[in-house]
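Design job #97: recover the sequence.
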């Protein structure tokens, strides 16, 4: 892959990872409930989900969606349902008082599950890879070039969310976040539910 093309890929992946959305809300929530290890686990598993979509795109996801649009709609609806479920969980966690909200904990296994599933359920990722990466990946691209696309997308996403989890779990930041756990849970729930509704509305 030419260097200028790879740098374009890096820029696109960085912009995609850094844009606010359900992925950031998910990493924030797990960092708040489980500390640094849970937040980092969520970030790494999210990157694995991103890598899966990048691999599917590199090996023909775009062509498959063109030929089977019904399958794409089914993926979108299932993704919206999962985001809505996470949103309801976040809102319910935020109904109690501040002490109760702080007691809402998460485990590393839950963080890994949610990180991976939020990546798969996020329709923005599907559209991002199909619309943008499919323009960079040509039929003539070598297998090594395709794997470079996958590793780049996965590495940038993982590095960003691990950095976010590390920053949020800082000894001075985490207590401040925990003191505002109720509002963070409510805001997270609203973001996830709003995205789920937007997906359903657009299907």
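Job complete. Output follows.
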């Amino acid at each position: 892959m030419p260097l200028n093309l790879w740098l374009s890929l890096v820029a696109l992946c960085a912009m995609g990872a850094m844009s606010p959305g359900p992925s950031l809300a998910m990493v924030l929530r797990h960092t708040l409930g489980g500390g640094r290890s849970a937040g980092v686990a969520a970030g790494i598993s999210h990157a694995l989900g991103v890598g899966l979509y990048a691999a599917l795109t590199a090996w023909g996801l775009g062509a498959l969606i063109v030929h089977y649009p019904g399958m794409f709609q089914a993926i979108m609806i299932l993704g919206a349902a999962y985001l809505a479920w996470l949103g309801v969980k976040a809102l319910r966690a935020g109904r109690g008082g501040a002490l109760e909200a702080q007691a809402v904990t998460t485990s590393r296994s839950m963080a890994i599950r949610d990180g991976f599933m939020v990546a798969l359920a996020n329709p923005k990722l599907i559209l991002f890879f199909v619309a943008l990466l499919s323009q960079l990946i040509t039929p003539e691209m070598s297998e090594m070039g395709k794997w470079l696309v996958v590793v780049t997308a996965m590495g940038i996403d993982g590095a960003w969310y691990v950095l976010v989890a590390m920053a949020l779990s800082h000894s001075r930041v985490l207590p401040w976040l925990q003191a505002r756990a109720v509002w963070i849970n409510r805001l997270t729930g609203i973001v996830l539910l709003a995205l789920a509704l937007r997906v359903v509305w657009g299907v």
